[in-house]
Amino acid sequence: MLVTCAAPVRASNGVELTGISLQARARGGADVAVGDSALSQIDNPATLSLTSHGRSRFDFAGQLVFPEVSWNNPFGSYQSEVRVIPIGDVAVAFPASDRFTWGLAFHGKSGLATRYRARHLLIPFQERRVGSDCKNLGLYLNGAYKLTDKLSVGGGIRGELLTSEFSAVLGPADVDFGRGYAYGLGFQLGMHYQATETIAFGIGYRSPTWANDLRGGRARASLFGVLPIPLGDANIDKVRLPQRVAAGAAWDVTDWCKLVGEVRWLNYSNSIWSNLTVATSGVVDLRVPIPMGYRDQWVFIAGAEFKLDEQWTLGVGYNYGRTPATDKHLFPVGTVLAEHHASVGLRYARDNWWVGAGYILGFNSSMGGGGRSMIPLGIDYGPSSIEQTQHSLIVGFGFEW
Predict the structure, then answer these.
(1) Which residue among 4, 126, 140, 370 has its CA within the 20 to 30 Å range from the CA of 147?
(2) Which pTM does this prediction carry?
(3) Residue 324's Cα: distance from chain center in Å?
């Protein structure tokens, strides 16, 4: 939990993670039909029913992300100074009976992290420091019930914290939004069906997160970089985070080979990642819309696991998520582009514990601003472009008792 809170989250399916547990990340993120970790309850609460009866379970997954991000504008190319980002997730599962299991999970759900020193069209005489730091953390309480030997259902509630600060140049103004906080609630539902001994299906639904305004920060602007103007208290109105639906299947082709697939839909277009409004309350009350322009995203995942022997398992996967960002809404401090991801992971397991590690590559992606920006006074962003590549080391361990 401390690792997750200490640094911003960087993600790849839009602003969200490709997967959560080490097992899922190694096979491209697919998990709703597998459920081989206590962390699987985050994607599909019904998978808690797969926990061994009479044996509680703890799982941890960590990820070190090494982003390579460059912003190219008419004055040159600028590299983001955020080079390493740690992510951590933990979960526990407790079987209460042969039918009911409950669990608790802490998850770094989404976020952004960028930091540049760049020159701008109307402030060309000095480099301005711009960027964003957004963290979205969730605490999940879930339960699952076995309706039959094959069919399980699950659900739960979650509380979320969203905290953010950012700085950006809008035309002649260098604008700072100080750190603010929002708190919200949501729920999740899931179903897992073991159709045969070798084929399973799963579906998971995550509701929107309904939160209060993001408050607590103060805003400041400086005209042409030399005239600082305090704007007073600032907030982001009507915080709403996206809902998600995921459906998948898993097939044990042989005793040593498992194939998995999953499809997801993320409703970015009905969230603050599409449209957010910054409001200030001071000498002058302002309301500034910042259309991030994120559209709904479809994600397609294919993965496989190979049991090398009794203890060693190799996972491989591919994850494709069409970028939700659009060129006319290009915003270097808030646009994540990664579409294609390849992953591999190796884990070692004994009777009551396991440990593993792996690697994820988010292939190079780029986007140009198209010459015209929908960001208010975003004259720097229309003629700009950004380029991103992500490397990630993944680790995990768990045990039963």
Answers:
(1) 140
(2) 0.92
(3) 13
